[in-house]
Amino acid sequence: MAITVAEINKLRQQTGAGMMDCKKALEESNGDFEKAIDYLRKKGAKIAANRQDREAKEGYVITKVKGNKAILLSINCETDFVAKNQDFQSFAEEVANIAIEKFPADTESLKKLPYNSDINISDKLMEQIAKIGEKIEIGYYASLEGPFITSYIHPGNRLAVIVAFSKPINGEAAKNIAMQIAAMAPVSIDKSDVPADVLERELEIAREQVRQEGKPADMIEKIAQGKLNKFFKESTLLNQEYIKDNKITVAQYLQSVDKEAQIIAFKRYSLS
């Protein structure tokens, strides 16, 4: 059957797919719009399957804050060209808006949420793959709740942070701490929060370094513990030197802002 330009344009507006892809989809579906949309999704799935071994290292990282909740999301793609495309960024913004409204627990739950009245986010991802021709995926998703929330997105939308505090604090101070996390990539808030596997790995690395330095066997553990203390200073948020004043730690900076405030959680994500 003959497919009109108006029909092609209508499908293009619904899906964002290219004109020729929409024409092909309608022709293959005998003008049935639902089947044509399914055709485009299947095309996206096929492209995704063919690109399983490709890495989606580029993308668009974004945060959303609403009341005492925040989300951090990265929609990843293969090329910087796509990452800078306005339509791609608008798609990421829309998924982030849905995430902050519905506040899903994890990535799989996010994918199942409705994107609009017709399809869910997972299906919309397939449409984006069909439209763009690259591997498109949710590279990262995390959420936080707390009495006071702030966020920071580094210029270029390749790095972002969300932070939860135990109580409201000065907005500039909260942003400074979020920027500290962005710049210094701490592994935890304090020494006691360092995951056991990370702790053991750092200790073993320190022990091996000491052995290679030829130190006496009975000194290995003591020196390794000293190296671990250096790790705590460099890699745990409260013990890091504050980036705007290296004479004090982040803990001391926070105390100077509000003696009762505590950092209760943070999430950081950066594209490779």
Notes on the protein architecture:
The chain has 272 residues and is of the alpha+beta class. Among the domains are: 5-50, Ubiquitin-associated (UBA) domain (Helicase, Ruva Protein, domain 3, Orthogonal Bundle); 191-265, GTP Cyclohydrolase I, Chain A, domain 1 (Orthogonal Bundle), CATH 1.10.286. It has helices spanning 5-15, 19-28, 33-50, 80-83, 86-102, 107-112, 121-132, 171-184, 196-212, 220-235, 250-257, and strands at residues 58-66, 69-77, 137-145, 148-153, 159-165, 241-242, 245-249, 263-270. The chain has a three-stranded antiparallel sheet with strand order 1-2-3. Strands 4-5-8 form a three-stranded antiparallel sheet, with helices on one face. It has a two-stranded antiparallel sheet with strand order 6-7. β6 and β7 (245-249) form a beta hairpin. α1 crosses α2 and α2 (19-28) crosses α3. The chain is elongated and about 85 Å long.
Looking at this protein, list some descriptive labels.
20% strand; GTP Cyclohydrolase I, Chain A, domain 1; alpha+beta; 3-stranded antiparallel β-sheet; single chain; 272 residues
Structural class: alpha+beta
Proportion of residues in extended strands: 15-25%
- Which of globular, elongated, flat, extended, rod-shaped describes the shape? elongated
Order of helices and strands: HHHEEHHHHEEEHHHEEHE
Number of strands: 8
Number of helices: 11
Separation of the first and last Cα atoms: 48 Å
- Helical amount: 40-55%
Radius of gyration: 24 Å
Strand order of the largest sheet: 1-2-3
Give me the CATH fold name of the domain at 191-265: GTP Cyclohydrolase I, Chain A, domain 1
Low-confidence stretches: none
Main beta sheet strand tally, sense and closure = 3 strands, antiparallel
CATH architectural arrangement of the domain at 191-265:
Orthogonal Bundle
Using the coordinates above, name the CATH class of the domain at 191-265: Mainly Alpha
Q: Average pLDDT value?
A: 90
